[in-house]
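Suppose you are handed only two things: the residues of a chain and a line of SMILES describing magnesium ion. What would the bound structure be? This form records exactly that question and the answer produced for it, so the two can be stored side by side and reused later without any lookup.

QUESTION INPUTS
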Amino acid sequence: MLEVRGLHAGYGRVPVLHGIDLTVRPGEIVLVLGPNGAGKSTLLRSICGFIRPTQGSVRLDGDDVTGLAPEAITRRGMRLVLDGHRVFPELSVRDNIRLGAAFRGGRPDFEEMAAPALEMFPILREKLLSPARDLSGGQQQMLALAQAFVAQPKVLLCDEPSLGIAQALIPPILEFLRRWAARGTAVVIVEQQIDSALAVADRAVILERGEIRLSGAAEELKRDARVHAIYLGLDETEE
Ligand SMILES: Nc1ncnc2c1ncn2[C@@H]1O[C@H](COP(=O)(O)OP(=O)(O)O)[C@@H](O)[C@H]1O
Ligand SMILES: [Mg+2]
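ANSWER OUTPUT
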């Protein structure tokens, strides 16, 4: 479904990614782990077309989408949910969700399409008519995911869904992503919550300075001391 080969990208003349390979099949969750500044967000942005790769390729459902504009890539079924729970604060919860469907031609049955998300996040149903700014950070993250969900992407890329939200809201968000993938979506999650994210993922790659240092089945990486070591070692030097 998503096939990234030898991807290089950066900002201006500064290279950040040095040849990334990543394959995600339908129904699979692949986790991208790595310390701050490793290039995780840059990877998601260059897959989605927000940054033009300097080398390598991105294939979506068999089609080469490398270098296409982000709108074109989105239209073909890729969706990036940015970190920092971004929603339209003045719009109601309902209208925020509706925007995801609007993108697919304003389907009138968007609430039905949103049902699995509203079931998982009942607070959104309760607050359907409230402006999104009334929601907590974690609830706004749920809303951003619900909006992406009704767009029904083939490939979902999710940048640090747990960033800056209450600890208690992280499990339902990860569980929602797990159920979403189970419907046949290829899901890539960038996370810092290593253990809880490994629990829902099928595979993981660990990025360090723009390269994949370690990859494997989530089940195995859970027990691999190197996973935490890469974080701890670098986090100390960077902060
Ligand atoms: N907009 C930008 N312009 C220039 N450099 C950037 C920009 N965004 C990120 N970088 C640099 O790219 C590298 C990787 O950043 P990023 O992909 O955000 O890492 P991560 O998401 O893993 O924390 C860092 O060295 C960072 O300083
Ligand atoms: Mg990042």
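WHAT STANDS OUT: Residues 40-41, 159 surround magnesium ion (ligand 2) (CB under 6 Å). Strands lie at 2-11, 14-24, 29-33, 55-60, 63-64, 78-81, 155-159, 186-190, 203-208, 211-217.
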